[in-house]
Predict the 3D structure of the following.
Amino acid sequence: MEYLEFELPIKELEEQLQKCRVIGEESEVDVTETCKNIESKLKETQKDIYKNLTPWQRVQLSRHPNRPYTLDYIKAICGDTFLELHGDRSFKDDKAMIGGLGKIGDQSFMFIGQQKGYNTKTRQYRNFGMANPEGYRKALRLMKSAEKFGIPVVTLLDTPGAYPGLEAEERGQGEAIARNILEMTRLKVPVITIVIGEGASGGALGIGVGDVVLMLENTWYSVISPESCSSILWRSWEYKEQAAEALKLTASDMKKLKLVDEIIKEPLGGAHRDKEKTFKTVSNTIVKVFEDLKNLSPDELVSQRMEKYSNMGVFKG
């Protein structure tokens, strides 16, 4: 397990607890009481740290190297029923954007999401979760297929942004994202969107228009990352913590501003601390939300979705 800077007190206590148990196993000394004391101190420290997280610390947790990614969720939720579909039928298959059909129980869903890598090799293969235009066009193709066969869509957002390279611009990155936003507002099937990590800028919005938008507790959703915001406003990355505070990018801020509908609770310490529990919670949430949406007619779905997004940013003086 890797630890972030603010988690170091937890690391120390966990190491102490481990040593205490080893001493107990290897010698005649009764260490039960000592272990109990360390355990209770560890629980208190964890609660204390995770209860008072700053926006920047939540951003760090959303990028934790042990945090589960899109394919982890899909494989855990759908098991062997997941069938990945490839290609945008125009240019090529984007490895940063994955999608395909999978089942939860007897209900089929079209899963679409950005996929990051686990090590240097897979990060390069997945382009660090930054999709090119063909990724968004693949996503749109899959959404249109889902609409054709009446299958609900689930999108999982986890990207530092759409790929900003020259070749992406040449192939119409802006147009691809704008097209997706337009088409998603009028899809005639339920669309459930979940932010599972980083929800950055248009890269996330390109698959982020849903009937119900959910955020995991330690994720962020914003027009720009704190580092980029800091470098624009202060000409330096030094002020990223202030930028994170000012951007109001955490799940609780987004809920307060009525930009997302619900926050999905994570295990204490983040999704990576108890992956199985996180997968189960996300799976149950998808099923619960779909139950609420499945009886709406296509026209009702579209008009409710349009109204939801039309009301965003309305300010009454």
Q: What stands out?
A: The chain is about 50% helix and 15% strand. The beta strands are 83-84, 97-104, 107-114, 153-159, 191-200, 212-216, 220-222, 262-264. The chain has a mean pLDDT of 94.
